[in-house]
Amino acid sequence: GAGVSQSPSNKVTEKGKDVELRCDPISGHTALYWYRQSLGQGLEFLIYFQGNSAPDKSGLPSDRFSAERTGGSVSTLTIQRTQQEDSAVYLCASSSSRVGQYFGPGTRLTVT
Amino acid sequence: RKEVEQDPGPFNVPEGATVAFNCTYSNSASQSFFWYRQDCRKEPKLLMSVYSSGNEDGRFTAQLNRASQYISLLIRDSKLSDSATYLCVVISDPGNEKLTFGTGTRLTIIP
After folding, report:
1. Nearest Cα residue to A45 out of B107, B44, B99, B9
2. Who has the most CB within 10 Å: A48, B32, B58, B109?
3. B98 close contact with A: CB closer than 8 A
4. Closest Cα to residue A104, out of B99, B7, B43, B32?
5. Which helix or strand (DSSP H or E) is residue B106 part of?
């Protein structure tokens, strides 16, 4: 079956612009996660959605970052007024029960 | 103290050798454990879950030591294709599925 998909695969934007990153999780997966990874660094947790529960936003680095998940499926991560330090690969993952997460290919964001 | 700690390496190992990684976790209530691998400029991929009794998948063996709060990954007869970063992953909160990732151990298999 289809895996986690993300779009766009690459995004170059100017400093100060807003960007939206999209994630389509595996069908039926109740949990959805956003991470980011800077070059040569580990994964940084951003936000976690589980079913209809309130999302865990504890990893969002600033109020410029927000995410929503509509209908328990597709999720959008929005970064407002992008800064150069926002440049990273943004990874989405989904899971069902405790069998591990499956990652999408990521969106490579470059802020110039 | 980090929730999940790994030796970052790098580990440079000759082809055919056996290599072992350890990972420690700080929350004794942690319930689920995994190893992921991440190839350069690719997304992490689930390698294997780690069960209390230990488990094996081909050349890979994972073990859990709850008393000492560490998990291990053993790779036997290493192949060039095993070169990657290996990520230790823990579900620390039994109330949800949020995963905590270690920073990874980089492995290079040398011909």
Report:
1. B99
2. A48
3. yes
4. B43
5. strand B105-110
- Minimal Cβ distance to B103: which of A42, A56, A95: A42
**What's the pLDDT tens digit per position in B93-102?**
766 777 888 9
Separation CA A107–CA A92 (nearest Å): 9
Q: pLDDT tens, A46-66?
A: 999 988 889 999 999 999 999
DSSP state of B3: S
Whether chain B has a CB inside 8 Å of the CB on A106: the answer is: yes
- Rounded CA gap, A48 and A38, in Å? 19
Whether chain A has a CB inside 8 Å of the CB on B43: the answer is yes
What are the residues whose beta carbons fall under 8 Å from the beta carbon of A71, sequence distance 6 or more?
none
Query: Number of residue pairs across A and B with CB atoms under 8 Å?
Result: 47
H or E element in which residue B85 lies: strand B84-91
CB-based contacts of A40, cutoff 8 Å, min separation 6? none
Tokens of A81: 């007024």
Alpha-carbon distance B15 to nearest alpha carbon in chain A (angstroms)? 24
Residue holding tokens 């504890």? A58
Q: Do A42 and B100 touch (CB under 8 A)?
A: no
CA A33 to chain centre: 6
